[in-house]
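Sequence only, no structure available. Ideas?
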Amino acid sequence: MGGDDFHKGVKAPTHELNASGLKILIVHTRWNSEIVDPLVAGARTTLESMGVASHNIVVRDVPGAFELPGAAQKLIRQSQQQTNLVSSVIDDLLSAPGTHSNPETQGPFDAAICIGVLIKGSTLHFEYISDAVSHGIMRVGLDTGVPTVFGVLTCLTDDQAMERAGIGRGANKGHNHGVDWATAAVEMACLKL
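Reply:
I predicted one. Tokens follow.
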């Protein structure tokens, strides 16, 4: 190990992941949208390529990174509360033939991805928000029991953030980390004993 054989990043899962039937929540910020939008697109495309049906990918936006944990927790809890077998059966029986209920109101989320970009400025704001958001997103996963992926870039420069979204300005466009976050969400949603 070492030298030329070192590969930065996460190693591929050791088992095949079956993402069909999974329901994934993506909550993203509108702050730094030029960088966030490609990350969301990368996550969504990867989820679909892994077998998650497009109607089972729910995307919601919030103003900034500080709002990510609260929004994710609220949406996850709403999905968990709507998972009432009796009400689902009644809804299905009462719906007109050939129609289907809105998939966004059916079943709990299997995983969530919180996506945002924080870029250090000249004040301590970056440190406070980064710390609060990282702890908040971790708490969402622990408190709800739903794997919640930390998809927040914390960068020192605009160029660093752009490269991590795959839209770098130079010859090296970088790598879209939305791809990695989507893969992590599916892997964690499929985690079993």
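The helical segments are 33-49, 68-81, 85-94, 125-144, 158-164, 177-189.
Hope that gets you unstuck.
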